[in-house]
Amino acid sequence: MSTVVTTYHQRVAQEKRALIVTAATALFLELGYDRTSLARIAECSGVSRATLFKQFPSKAALFDAIVTESWSTADEEEPPPAGNIVDGLGIIGRRYAELLGRAQMTDLFRIVIAELPRFPELANAQFSHGKLPYFESVRSYLLAEHEAGTVRVEDVDLAATQFLGMISNYVFWPTLLVPGWEVSAERVAQVVDEAVRTIAARYAATAPGASTND
């Protein structure tokens, strides 16, 4: 019985956490980070102030949670195995496109951009808790492929930036600037596929005995 009760309370806590994060995101967009109080967030999420403060002792902690959840993926702990750069980057590219296609990702960037002049720490949080960890996962994958001899990547930071940039520049950044910008699922798949092909061709391992000089 104790296990059942514990599981129930954990589920309730997770549901309340989701309500708080959703309400906070909406209020940050509507009122701005500075003008949104934790009390207002508790009211709009339908939880008590005690419940909110138990989960998030400060507004900064709540924003960190928004960043972390916006960048989270169900299978992020399972990186593709090295050995096939096309298959591996295909998995990573589709994950990235799915992340960028989430409404909460667009909302997160809009909050950060709007509040950057007054609250640069929000941008720092977005980078350190969201963008950077994801970038490092892609970088680590490319390094593993390099060490496995699948590709030859001397600058993994640059290669990771090139790959992610080819995807985000088409499927994400225009959504912040162009009203009504939408990209079909078919087009997203094409963008990811072309990015994979470009990286695979650019960093193809040199054939045995071939010259490495340009």
UniProtKB/TrEMBL annotation:
Keywords recorded for this protein, A-Z: DNA-binding
The question of whether DNA-binding is a record keyword is answered with yes
Domain HTH tetR-type: start-end pairs: 14-74
Q: Which residues bind DNA?
A: 37-56
Which Pfam families does the UniProt record give?
TetR_C_7, TetR_N
Q: Which PROSITE patterns match?
A: HTH_TETR_2
Q: Which residues, by range, are in coiled-coil regions? A: none
Q: What name does UniProt use for this protein?
A: TetR/AcrR family transcriptional regulator
- What species is this protein from? Nocardia fusca
